[in-house]
Amino acid sequence: MKENKQLLSLEEILIDPSHTLAGDMLSKCPYPWDMLPKIGECIKEIIKKLDKELYDDLGDDVWVAKSARIAKSALICGPAVIGENAEIRHCAYIRGNVLIGNGAVVGNSCELKNAIVSDEVQIPHYNYVGDSILGYRSHMGAGAIASNFRLDKKQIKIGRGENSFATGLRKMGVILGDYSEVGCNSVLYPGTVIGKNCLVYPLTGVRGIVPSDTIVKSDGNMTKRKNT
């Protein structure tokens, strides 16, 4: 997949690292998915540098900003950091190795594990996000799923056919670019990479690489998004 190296670079397609506390480490990764095995380690380093006047220590490497709103029914397992003015709603399940950005929303009955959620991301209703990175102000519609494990249990690859790129990972969900929107009840297959400013129609299965400024329709066709 040599011809796609530039396409898949962090700077070219995906995520502004200034909108996550993991930005320094993320910006050093050749590809965004190289960050996935390092998320837990990264969060522990972030915890060391947090302004302890702004965050509460809930124990077991769970730190929550004092300005965040956490439902009593939510379950948060460490290591995890919940950013300022974030909202974790009823029955959300944070399974560990999760970094939630400032102003982000994790909603009713959502489940997250090993994920970086940038500032102002919305994951509001019945979503699963595993082994994924969500860019600034991206949004997952109700019931949208970031699937992270192949049915045949083989290594995750980016792209298709002769141009596929072996990640070395057995679990990888989605790399979702800044400002991209995923419609309700869509499924993002393992190893999906979606660029900036994309729209995914509801009830759509998405796999492979979606270039920035693209509309992905429910029949699988893709068109250029105008006026972004």
List the helices and strands and how they pair.
Layout: H1 10-14, H2 23-27, H3 39-49, E1 55-59, E2 62-65, E3 69-70, E4 75-76, E5 80-82, E6 87-88, E7 93-94, E8 98-100, E9 105-108, E10 111-117, E11 122-125, E12 128-134, E13 139-140, E14 145-146, E15 157-158, E16 165-166, E17 174-176, E18 181-182, E19 187-188, E20 192-194, E21 199-200, E22 205-206, E23 209-210, E24 214-216, E25 222-224
What's the short version?
This protein has 228 residues and is mostly beta strands. It has one domain (2-224): Hexapeptide repeat proteins (UDP N-Acetylglucosamine Acyltransferase, domain 1), CATH 2.160.10. 9% of the residues lie in helices and 33% in strands.
* Assigned CATH architecture: 3 Solenoid
- Taken from the alpha-carbon principal axes, the silhouette is globular
Tally the helices: what do you get?
3
What does the largest sheet look like? 14 strands, mixed
Distance between the termini: 28 Å
Relative helix content: under 10%
Structural class: mainly beta
Q: What is the CATH superfamily? A: Hexapeptide repeat proteins
Whole-number radius of gyration? 16 Å
Number of domains: 1
CATH class: Mainly Beta
Written as H for each helix and E for each strand, in order along the chain, the element string is: HHHEEEEEEEEEEEEEEEEEEEEEEEEE
Any idea of the CATH topology?
Answer: UDP N-Acetylglucosamine Acyltransferase, domain 1
